[in-house]
Design goal:
single chain, about 475 residues, Rossmann fold, N-(1-d-carboxylethyl)-l-norvaline Dehydrogenase, domain 2, Single alpha-helices involved in coiled-coils or other helix-helix interfaces, 3 domains, seven-stranded mixed sheet, two-stranded antiparallel ribbon, about 55% helix, about 10% strand, globular
Amino acid sequence: MSTSDPSVFGLIGLGVMGRNFILNVAEKGFSALGYDLDPEKVAALEEAGAQTGRVKATTDLATFVSGLERPRRIMLLVPAGNPVDAVIESLLPHLEKGDIVVDGGNSHYRDTDRREASLATAGIHFFGAGVSGGAEGARRGPSIMPGGSRDAYAYLKPVFEAVAARYDDTPCVAYLGAKSAGNYVKMVHNGIEYALMQAIAEVYDVLRRAGKWDNPSLARLFDTWNQGRLQSFLVEITAEIFAQPDPYGTGELLDHILDKAKQKGTGKWTSQDALDLGIPVPALDASVSMRQISALKALREKAEPLFPAPEGSVLEADTLAAEAEAALYFAFVMAYAQGMHLLAEASETYGYELDLAEIATIWRAGCIIRAGLLASITEAYRENADLENLILAPGFARDLRESLPRVRSFVSLGVQSGIPLSVIGGSLSYFDAMRSGRLPLNLVQAQRDFFGAHTYERTDRDGTFHTEWQ
């Protein structure tokens, strides 16, 4: 390959995501240079990008780095963990002060903080940039969540804004904050994603088992929902999943897919950090737990004949559909509310200075959790940047009040039918706790003081007290 004309943007890791992202960059008018150790991936990229005339690739790292404009803009799309450190170590001897390295994978935010501090000693700028939208999003326009040096972002901004998804002609990318802000926001994005997916699965379970809905009927229902307040990428693809025929026989493919869901860790990280920060995210927690329970297939099959499911009441189809829609909307709002609450606390604790309205804005297109209600979330935080929780926003408070009777009826049906509703039921319990001015934790405090002399506070006077319990 010729390196006489330096490329504007470099990308390391030419798997499906990397190849699609760099082709997106080239099609938006930027010369791009790719690097991978696999000659087949290099050849595949050059063939795919031949028509643009702006894509080159190489298997030689020195050639790759020397073929980039200064300051170099290099993005990594490699698996999180040790592979990122290995690539950085191999890159360092070839880099110069002022160069910019972007990790576009799902790295843990603490790893990003460590890498940024280490590279800063050599004058290298390091970014953690969450990229959401999957392979198709990388190709056609993802949501991008970068965090790092504000000054260095000026060099990335033209490329990122060009390749990002657009909503009302606004690019779904923004500088989010210092250090690992981008990776943290992407982590919470994924935690919300877990909860939304599990809530959809729970509604499907009730409709299928208690309501006896078949897949074609579910496909039509979800398609209808996608035209209303539940409009979202996940509801849209769920409708398509219900309609997908089985390539190996009759009926729909969904009925032949094993009920064991995998995970890559970002949902768990979200729950762990929320616990550390003292922010309740029960919908996100429950979605992680349900994936863990799903993995215990053999155990579940042993328990099933021992505990037959009760026969719950069967609702008229239109009534059940209305209750399911209300329950799913309620669970969606709770998932976003918990995620945004966590982001607000993390911003203060870690010094990110996050703009929650900006985050909701860049999630409106391109990413997996894009949904129509993000426009209302954006508006809520623009009207009140210090909003403590979405349930306090006037518009959401009104919607939640109107939805509650149907939500309670839907959860009751699930309980009566022996159908687990960890996210939807947990969301209702979270909401009821958050709207309760008084909780029974006074008893817990008394218990702690009784057995451990841990003291307690009183409602009628200041100070800390201990009682010698009889």
